[in-house]
Design a protein that fits this description.
With 169 residues, this protein is an alpha+beta fold. The chain contains five helices and seven strands. A seven-stranded mixed sheet has the order 1-2-3-4-5-7-6, with helices on both faces.
């Protein structure tokens, strides 16, 4: 029922469900890079990470719900202080039991529409680790293209390649 899915403002209580989808340390780093270096991650860790960012007003966390259940999550932020035309997606995650069913694509399409219609964005950027091919394919399926920029990203588990992607609106 993709028509019943919607993006809503993230609430602190969403964190308990979202963090329950992080089953291992590799998943934590694929999802959050080095932003949250604590495994197992708990709801309070996510809320502590988000609180100052939300207060900055350059950070918009959203939950994706279907039939009043949270089934996905992502954040939108402004990567450049004085440029509101470019937004960046991050912390993109789908409930573990629902992956591989096209739900990520639906969530991204709703988030793209939100960025375009509510934030007047002209471009969306994101980074995806090269060891997260299912996520990369999902981003490509909604129109994201590689920029050719690959950053080396040092994290606790080693150095990972982060592929930069963008979508012109």
């Amino acid at each position: 029922n993709w028509w019943s899915m919607k993006l809503v403002k993230y609430q602190d209580e969403d964190a308990k469900i979202i963090t329950s989808w992080i089953k291992d340390e590799i998943s934590l780093y694929k999802w959050s890079a080095d932003r949250i270096q604590k495994f197992p991650i708990e709801a309070k860790d996510l809320n502590e990470c988000y609180k100052p960012l939300i207060e900055s007003a350059n950070f918009i966390p959203l939950s994706f719900i279907d039939n009043d259940s949270i089934i996905g999550h992502l954040i939108i932020r402004y990567p450049e202080n004085n440029n509101k035309e470019i937004v960046r997606f991050g912390f993109v995650i789908i409930a573990s039991q629902l992956r591989g069913q096209g739900i990520g694509k639906q969530m991204l399409n709703l988030a793209i529409k939100y960025a375009k219609n509510n934030l007047n964005a002209k471009k969306i950027t994101l980074g995806v680790f090269s060891n997260n091919l299912s996520a990369k394919y999902c981003y490509e399926s909604v129109g994201f293209k590689e920029t050719g920029i690959i950053d080396k990203y040092p994290i606790k588990l080693g150095e990972w390649d982060c592929i930069e992607m963008e979508l012109e609106l």
